[in-house]
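A quick aside before the break. I want you to see a complete sequence-to-structure record at least once, exactly as it would be stored in a machine-readable document. Don't worry about memorizing anything.
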Amino acid sequence: MTEVIELLGKTLIHTTRLLKNVTPEQYRQPTPCAEFDVYALANHLVAGNLYYVRLAQGGAPDFSLFAQDQIGGRQPGDAYARGAEDALDAWRTDGAVERRMPMPGGGQGPLVTDLHLLEATLHGWDVATATGQDRRGDPDAVQVVHQRWYDRFPDALRSQTRLFGPSRPAPEGAPALDEIAAYFGRTV
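That is the input. The structure line, written in C-alpha coordinates, reads:
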Protein backbone atom coordinates (compact mmCIF):
# COMPACT_ATOMS: atom_id res chain seq x y z
CA MET A 1 0.00 0.00 0.00
CA THR A 2 2.96 2.34 0.17
CA GLU A 3 2.77 2.45 -3.64
CA VAL A 4 -0.49 4.38 -3.51
CA ILE A 5 1.01 6.84 -0.99
CA GLU A 6 4.02 7.32 -3.27
CA LEU A 7 1.75 7.91 -6.28
CA LEU A 8 -0.47 10.22 -4.29
CA GLY A 9 2.63 12.13 -3.20
CA LYS A 10 3.70 12.57 -6.84
CA THR A 11 0.24 13.78 -7.81
CA LEU A 12 -0.03 16.18 -4.89
CA ILE A 13 3.37 17.64 -5.78
CA HIS A 14 2.33 17.96 -9.43
CA THR A 15 -0.96 19.65 -8.51
CA THR A 16 0.89 21.94 -6.08
CA ARG A 17 3.14 23.08 -8.95
CA LEU A 18 0.13 23.77 -11.13
CA LEU A 19 -1.57 25.80 -8.38
CA LYS A 20 1.63 27.74 -7.63
CA ASN A 21 1.55 28.92 -11.27
CA VAL A 22 -1.99 30.31 -10.94
CA THR A 23 -2.12 34.10 -10.89
CA PRO A 24 -4.84 36.31 -9.38
CA GLU A 25 -5.75 37.38 -12.93
CA GLN A 26 -6.76 33.75 -13.63
CA TYR A 27 -8.98 33.27 -10.56
CA ARG A 28 -12.26 34.00 -12.36
CA GLN A 29 -11.51 31.96 -15.49
CA PRO A 30 -13.85 29.03 -16.13
CA THR A 31 -12.60 25.46 -15.72
CA PRO A 32 -13.63 22.19 -17.37
CA CYS A 33 -15.31 21.35 -14.06
CA ALA A 34 -18.43 23.42 -14.81
CA GLU A 35 -19.36 24.43 -11.27
CA PHE A 36 -15.96 26.00 -10.52
CA ASP A 37 -13.92 28.92 -11.72
CA VAL A 38 -10.14 28.62 -11.12
CA TYR A 39 -10.29 30.08 -7.60
CA ALA A 40 -13.26 27.94 -6.56
CA LEU A 41 -11.53 24.84 -7.94
CA ALA A 42 -8.32 25.71 -6.08
CA ASN A 43 -10.37 26.16 -2.91
CA HIS A 44 -12.07 22.80 -3.55
CA LEU A 45 -8.65 21.16 -3.87
CA VAL A 46 -7.38 22.75 -0.65
CA ALA A 47 -10.56 21.69 1.16
CA GLY A 48 -10.20 18.23 -0.36
CA ASN A 49 -6.88 17.68 1.37
CA LEU A 50 -8.48 18.61 4.71
CA TYR A 51 -11.38 16.30 3.91
CA TYR A 52 -9.05 13.39 3.14
CA VAL A 53 -7.03 13.98 6.32
CA ARG A 54 -10.27 13.52 8.24
CA LEU A 55 -11.14 10.33 6.36
CA ALA A 56 -7.63 8.92 6.71
CA GLN A 57 -7.92 9.43 10.46
CA GLY A 58 -11.17 7.43 10.50
CA GLY A 59 -13.50 10.42 10.74
CA ALA A 60 -16.81 10.85 8.97
CA PRO A 61 -17.03 12.86 5.76
CA ASP A 62 -17.32 16.60 6.47
CA PHE A 63 -18.66 18.30 3.38
CA SER A 64 -18.86 21.66 5.18
CA LEU A 65 -15.11 22.02 4.53
CA PHE A 66 -15.90 22.65 0.86
CA ALA A 67 -18.27 25.53 1.65
CA GLN A 68 -15.57 27.54 3.44
CA ASP A 69 -12.83 29.70 1.96
CA GLN A 70 -9.80 27.55 2.73
CA ILE A 71 -7.35 29.74 0.80
CA GLY A 72 -7.95 33.10 2.45
CA GLY A 73 -5.29 35.58 1.42
CA ARG A 74 -2.69 32.91 0.59
CA GLN A 75 -1.47 31.91 -2.85
CA PRO A 76 -3.46 28.74 -3.82
CA GLY A 77 -0.36 26.59 -4.33
CA ASP A 78 0.97 27.49 -0.89
CA ALA A 79 -2.36 26.67 0.76
CA TYR A 80 -2.57 23.39 -1.14
CA ALA A 81 1.03 22.37 -0.35
CA ARG A 82 0.42 22.56 3.41
CA GLY A 83 -2.71 20.43 3.15
CA ALA A 84 -0.94 17.96 0.87
CA GLU A 85 1.76 17.39 3.49
CA ASP A 86 -0.88 16.88 6.18
CA ALA A 87 -2.79 14.44 3.96
CA LEU A 88 0.29 12.36 3.21
CA ASP A 89 1.14 12.23 6.92
CA ALA A 90 -2.41 11.07 7.67
CA TRP A 91 -2.26 8.35 4.99
CA ARG A 92 0.95 7.00 6.53
CA THR A 93 -0.78 6.13 9.83
CA ASP A 94 -1.68 2.51 10.60
CA GLY A 95 -4.81 1.32 8.83
CA ALA A 96 -5.45 4.54 6.91
CA VAL A 97 -4.84 3.18 3.40
CA GLU A 98 -7.32 0.32 3.96
CA ARG A 99 -10.26 2.68 4.61
CA ARG A 100 -13.10 2.55 2.09
CA MET A 101 -15.75 5.10 1.16
CA PRO A 102 -19.27 4.19 2.22
CA MET A 103 -21.66 3.97 -0.72
CA PRO A 104 -25.10 5.57 -0.88
CA GLY A 105 -27.60 2.96 0.21
CA GLY A 106 -24.96 0.98 2.12
CA GLY A 107 -21.94 -1.09 1.31
CA GLN A 108 -18.31 -0.24 0.87
CA GLY A 109 -16.99 1.65 -2.12
CA PRO A 110 -13.49 2.33 -3.37
CA LEU A 111 -10.43 2.79 -1.23
CA VAL A 112 -10.37 6.37 0.00
CA THR A 113 -6.74 6.71 -1.13
CA ASP A 114 -7.79 5.77 -4.66
CA LEU A 115 -10.50 8.42 -4.60
CA HIS A 116 -8.01 11.03 -3.34
CA LEU A 117 -5.59 10.02 -6.10
CA LEU A 118 -8.34 10.33 -8.72
CA GLU A 119 -9.54 13.71 -7.45
CA ALA A 120 -6.05 15.23 -7.24
CA THR A 121 -5.16 13.90 -10.70
CA LEU A 122 -8.42 14.90 -12.38
CA HIS A 123 -8.69 18.33 -10.77
CA GLY A 124 -5.01 18.92 -11.55
CA TRP A 125 -6.00 18.35 -15.20
CA ASP A 126 -8.83 20.87 -14.72
CA VAL A 127 -6.45 23.51 -13.32
CA ALA A 128 -3.89 22.89 -16.06
CA THR A 129 -6.50 23.08 -18.80
CA ALA A 130 -8.09 26.26 -17.44
CA THR A 131 -4.76 28.05 -17.02
CA GLY A 132 -2.95 26.85 -20.14
CA GLN A 133 -0.46 24.60 -18.36
CA ASP A 134 0.80 21.12 -19.25
CA ARG A 135 -2.10 18.80 -18.45
CA ARG A 136 -0.44 15.39 -18.78
CA GLY A 137 0.00 14.78 -15.04
CA ASP A 138 2.48 12.43 -13.39
CA PRO A 139 2.73 9.45 -15.80
CA ASP A 140 2.86 6.79 -13.07
CA ALA A 141 -0.14 8.19 -11.22
CA VAL A 142 -2.09 8.67 -14.45
CA GLN A 143 -1.46 5.04 -15.40
CA VAL A 144 -2.75 3.77 -12.04
CA VAL A 145 -5.79 6.08 -12.10
CA HIS A 146 -6.57 4.87 -15.60
CA GLN A 147 -6.29 1.21 -14.53
CA ARG A 148 -8.38 1.62 -11.38
CA TRP A 149 -11.09 4.00 -12.59
CA TYR A 150 -11.50 4.07 -16.37
CA ASP A 151 -14.67 2.18 -17.36
CA ARG A 152 -15.28 1.20 -13.72
CA PHE A 153 -17.58 3.95 -12.45
CA PRO A 154 -20.82 3.72 -14.45
CA ASP A 155 -22.98 6.74 -15.13
CA ALA A 156 -25.84 5.17 -13.12
CA LEU A 157 -23.68 5.20 -9.98
CA ARG A 158 -22.61 8.79 -10.60
CA SER A 159 -26.16 10.05 -10.29
CA GLN A 160 -26.33 8.47 -6.81
CA THR A 161 -23.01 9.87 -5.61
CA ARG A 162 -23.12 13.21 -7.48
CA LEU A 163 -19.33 13.04 -7.68
CA PHE A 164 -18.88 13.26 -11.44
CA GLY A 165 -20.79 14.13 -14.57
CA PRO A 166 -21.81 11.60 -17.21
CA SER A 167 -19.00 10.28 -19.35
CA ARG A 168 -18.21 11.93 -22.67
CA PRO A 169 -16.25 10.67 -25.63
CA ALA A 170 -12.54 11.39 -25.79
CA PRO A 171 -10.87 12.07 -29.13
CA GLU A 172 -9.37 8.98 -30.70
CA GLY A 173 -5.78 8.53 -29.60
CA ALA A 174 -6.16 10.97 -26.71
CA PRO A 175 -3.58 10.79 -23.92
CA ALA A 176 -4.62 8.68 -20.92
CA LEU A 177 -5.42 11.66 -18.69
CA ASP A 178 -7.59 13.22 -21.39
CA GLU A 179 -9.47 9.90 -21.59
CA ILE A 180 -9.97 9.94 -17.83
CA ALA A 181 -11.16 13.55 -17.93
CA ALA A 182 -13.70 12.75 -20.65
CA TYR A 183 -14.79 9.61 -18.81
CA PHE A 184 -15.54 11.75 -15.75
CA GLY A 185 -17.60 14.28 -17.69
CA ARG A 186 -15.12 16.81 -19.05
CA THR A 187 -15.19 17.99 -22.64
CA VAL A 188 -11.79 17.26 -24.14
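Two observations worth writing down. Residues 138 and 165 are 23 Å apart (CA to CA). Helices lie at 2-20, 38-56, 76-91, 112-131, 139-149, 155-161, 176-183. We'll return to this after the break.
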